[in-house]
Design brief:
Layout: E1 2-8, H1 18-25, E2 30-31, E3 34-41, H2 47-59, E4 63-69, E5 77-78, E6 81-83, E7 110-112, H3 117-126, H4 141-155, E8 162-168, H5 172-175, H6 186-202
Parallel strand pairs: 1-3, 1-4, 4-8
Antiparallel strand pairs: 2-3, 5-8, 6-7
Helix pairs in contact: 1-6, 2-4, 3-6
């Protein structure tokens, strides 16, 4: 069994992207007969989806977990839903800034993740790692990749392939010049991803417990 784990290159003048640093630390990790393959994804609309497609075609994974940076969040946040909108607050790394465009023309308005996001949060918290369900992946390249992944699963699936997205906080070195913003140590993020993957492999039907938000 192959597991595809993706992280992004740095963007918005950052020297590092914690998603790629955490993901590449798990490249080659084996568990329960499965092996993790890490792939670095461009922070560029369109290109990101082509790179994801190529990795899926190459590996034929049964599980895909995309990881992205969410500066300002304090927890690991598995995403519930991807929406069919590109609306860049900033330009991507190729200088593109789509506004109010579909990720995939003619596709549904949204897709839900097919991973057990609430069980993942439960197990992360049980291990002492801050975690919460997120109900928005934004409208930048993270959501673009997440939607593209779920559309691929819905329309051109690898047999038994499931997928989803998880956002992670800044690293401590990133917030040194941003006083007051939360961060999470890389070792903690890596440990959290191990738990999230283990839970995703073990749990087919998600737990039914609160994960909602008022706002």
């Amino acid at each position: 069994m192959n597991i595809l784990l993706t992280g992004f290159e740095p963007f918005e003048a950052e020297a590092v992207n914690p998603s790629w640093e955490a993901v590449r630390a798990l490249d080659g990790w084996r568990l329960e007969g499965a092996v993790v393959h890490a792939r670095r994804i461009s922070c560029v609309f369109g290109t990101a989806l082509r790179e994801l497609d190529a990795a899926i075609d190459e590996l034929q994974p049964q599980l895909v977990l995309a990881v992205g940076q969410a500066g300002g969040r304090a927890e690991l946040t598995p995403e519930r839903v991807a929406i069919n909108v590109d609306d860049g607050r900033i330009c991507d790394n190729a200088g593109c800034q789509p506004i109010d465009l579909p990720v995939v023309a003619g596709a549904p308005a949204a897709y839900f993740a097919t991973l057990p996001i609430k069980a993942m949060v439960r197990d992360l918290r049980a291990a002492g790692i801050p975690a919460a369900v997120s109900n928005t992946a934004g409208t930048f390249v993270c959501n673009h990749l997440f939607f593209g992944l779920m559309h691929r699963i819905a329309t051109r699936p690898v047999v038994a392939m499931r997928g989803g997205f998880i956002h992670i906080p800044y690293l401590p070195e990133q917030v040194a010049r941003r006083p007051g913003l939360p961060s999470m140590a890389l070792d903690t993020v890596v440990a959290g991803l191990r738990i999230a993957i283990t839970t995703a492999l073990a749990v087919r039907e998600d737990v039914r417990e609160t994960g909602g938000q008022l706002h």
